[in-house]
Amino acid sequence: MTSPEEPVVEGARDFAGVPDDTQRLWTPHRMAYIGGQDKPADPHDEGQCPFCAGPRRSDEDALIVHRGERAYVILNLYPYNAGHLLVCPYRHVSDYTDLDRDEVLEVGELTRTAMRVIREVSRPAGFNLGMNQGEVAGAGIAAHLHQHVVPRWQGDANFLPIVGRTKAVPILLADTRRLYADAWP
C-alpha cells in the first residue's frame, strides 16, 4: 500500500497581487491606530495627551466640533462608526468621579446636544453612549476621561468588522466635522 500524498501548503505571499474573486477593502491608515502611533508614551503627562493637545490647535486641524467652557466635542480620530464624537473635559482627569459638578453638567449637556446635532445631520436610528474607565475597560487613552457618542444605523455592523476586521466609514472626518460644527446651535 502506498501512503496518501502529503498536502502541499502554499505560502500566501506567493499569491500577493494575483486576481481572485475576493473583494478587498484595504485600510492601511488603521495601522497607525493598531501600532499605537498616537498613544502617549506616558499617559499621565498632559504634554503628551491628545485630548489636552487638541484644544491648543485649530478646530479644523484637531477635528473639534464645539468648544464649551469646561469641555469640548471632538470627532474620534479612529471612529467605530461615521460621526463618532467624543465629549472631553479640558481638565486632564481620568475618573468620572473626579469631575466637579460643573464639568459633569457640561459633559452631560454637550452629550445631549451632540445627539441632537447628529440626529439632524446624519439621521441615525440610535446611539451608543459610554465611557471606558481604565485600560482594562477598553479606554484607549485612559488618563483623560472622554464620553463616546456613537451614532448607529440598522445593519451598520455588517460582515466587514466581523469577518474582515475592517470598518467602512463612508465620510471623511473633515467633512463630518464641518457638517456637525455648522449644525451646532
From TrEMBL:
<dbReference type="Pfam" id="PF01230">
    <property type="entry name" value="HIT"/>
</dbReference>
<feature type="domain" description="HIT">
    <location>
        <begin position="50"/>
        <end position="159"/>
    </location>
</feature>
<protein>
    <submittedName>
        <fullName>HIT domain-containing protein</fullName>
    </submittedName>
</protein>
<feature type="binding site">
    <location>
        <position position="76"/>
    </location>
    <ligand>
        <name>substrate</name>
    </ligand>
</feature>
<feature type="short sequence motif" description="Histidine triad motif">
    <location>
        <begin position="144"/>
        <end position="148"/>
    </location>
</feature>
<feature type="region of interest" description="Disordered">
    <location>
        <begin position="1"/>
        <end position="20"/>
    </location>
</feature>
<dbReference type="InterPro" id="IPR039383">
    <property type="entry name" value="FHIT"/>
</dbReference>
<dbReference type="GO" id="GO:0000166">
    <property type="term" value="F:nucleotide binding"/>
</dbReference>
<dbReference type="InterPro" id="IPR052908">
    <property type="entry name" value="AP-4-A_phosphorylase"/>
</dbReference>
<dbReference type="GO" id="GO:0003824">
    <property type="term" value="F:catalytic activity"/>
</dbReference>
<feature type="active site" description="Tele-AMP-histidine intermediate">
    <location>
        <position position="146"/>
    </location>
</feature>
<keyword id="KW-0547">Nucleotide-binding</keyword>
<dbReference type="InterPro" id="IPR011146">
    <property type="entry name" value="HIT-like"/>
</dbReference>
<feature type="binding site">
    <location>
        <position position="148"/>
    </location>
    <ligand>
        <name>substrate</name>
    </ligand>
</feature>
<dbReference type="InterPro" id="IPR036265">
    <property type="entry name" value="HIT-like_sf"/>
</dbReference>
